[in-house]
Specification:
By secondary structure, this protein is mainly beta. The protein is 13% helix and 38% strand. It folds into 2 domains: 53 residues, no CATH class; 77 residues, Beta Barrel (OB fold (Dihydrolipoamide Acetyltransferase, E2P)), CATH 2.40.50. The strands form 2 sheets. A 5-stranded mixed barrel has the order 4-5-6-8-7. A 3-stranded antiparallel sheet has the order 2-1-3. The radius of gyration is 15 Å and the shape is globular. The structure holds zinc ion.
């Protein structure tokens, strides 16, 4: 099942991220993608190199959810953002800050967190302390 394979690859990636060893895959043209890809989604190159993810990313878009689907009931309200880290964009729940205070341009770092509703690990984005 291809879905299972993808989950497995992402799970390993979350392990690495939780250990502070997050990385992305970069092709010879500097396009970024995330595991478990084996082919560059932009140009089809198969020569992908593991590249350390930058420590901080920048939020590009953010959506605040006040009325969630039942699966995320306990987590609401929450902000979901897309942040750019070097060559890749990552989608995650913004943690450690009032959801309404999240705005584009905010600097964030990865924080692997556990959903209060499902108990599953999810990718979190935590504002960088300054
Ligand atoms: Zn490429």
């Amino acid at each position: 099942m291809s879905d299972d394979v993808q989950d497995e690859g992402f799970d390993e990636w979350l392990d690495a991220a939780a250990d502070g060893e997050a990385y992305y895959l970069e092709c010879p043209e500097s396009h970024g993608s995330l595991p478990p890809r084996r082919v560059c989604p932009d140009c089809g190159a198969t020569d992908l190199a593991e590249t350390p993810l930058p420590d901080a990313g920048t939020i590009e878009t953010v959506t605040v959810t006040h009325v969630p689907t039942p699966a995320f009931e306990e987590d609401a309200p929450y902000a979901t953002a897309i942040a750019r880290f070097g060559g890749v964009r990552l989608t995650g729940q913004v943690v450690g800050v009032d959801p309404d205070a999240v705005e584009t341009g905010l600097e964030v770092e990865l924080a692997v967190t556990v959903s209060e509703t499902t108990g599953e690990r999810v990718l979190g984005l935590e504002p960088v302390d300054r």
